[in-house]
Amino acid sequence: MLIDDEKRMLDLVALYLKPHDYICSKADSGKQALDLLESEVFDLVLLDIMMPDMDGFEVCRNIREFSNVPIIMLTAREQQEDIVKGLRLGADDYMTKPFGEEELLARMEALLRRTIPAKRIELKGLVWEEDRFELSYNHQLIRLTPKEFSMLGLLMKNPNKVFERDRLLELVWGFDSETEGRTVDSHVRNVREKVRQAGFPVDEHFQTVWGIGYKWIN
Fold it and tell me: Where would I find the Response regulatory domain in this sequence (predicted)?
């Protein structure tokens, strides 16, 4: 999530990050950012301080009322008291503008290494292992395509959260994907059938939210 009232800065940072496989959502106000953060899942927030109506300090304070998402503050203000204030309000790191692309990427990667979601998820004998790119049930390997594996992992990492089809397309197929929603439905059917054939009660956990999308129930 990129939060800055300057469209040029939002576009520039998104341009920096896209070749490194980051999917960026943009917000040009604190209110817009908070609305998105309350309704969607993000791995990291890049937050500007100098914004009208609601500055970055207030946005940070509000985020920490409902989320532990990592926050890096990006700002032209480099006074020590501002840095201390941001960190005490819950920011995890602080960078001053202008900043170098490589330093930004390094700080993001370092923070994500400490906060990345679980790479191994287990439920009733069903095991999803990201590093090994394997899904198994009672030690029986279930062969999934890369998109099927990524989609299932996203849902399992966020139990009880409803993902709209368009959001799944964005997160699994890529930000600029023109793939149609029925492709998501097709992949869901394939995953369910493969997991069901292995003996796992998939229909109890991989559920359809009619007219919206899908969710995983633990």
Answer: 1-112
Torsion of CA 96, 99, 101, 105, to 10 degrees: -20
The single residue listed with the structure tokens 């998939």 is 202
CA 117, 122, 123, 128 torsion: positive or negative?
positive
Residue 118, token pair as written in the block? 């679980």
- List b or e across 81-112, with b for residues whose CB sees 16 or more CB atoms inside 10 angstroms: ebbebbeebbbbbbbeeeeeeeebeebbeebe
Tokens of 81: 């008291």
Name, in order, each residue with C-beta under 8 angstroms of 120's C-beta and a sequence gap of 6 or more: 127, 128, 129, 130, 131
User: H or E element: which one contains 207?
Assistant: strand 206-209
Q: Full-prediction pTM beyond 0.70?
A: no
Greatest mean pLDDT among 41-45, 117-121, 133-137: 133-137
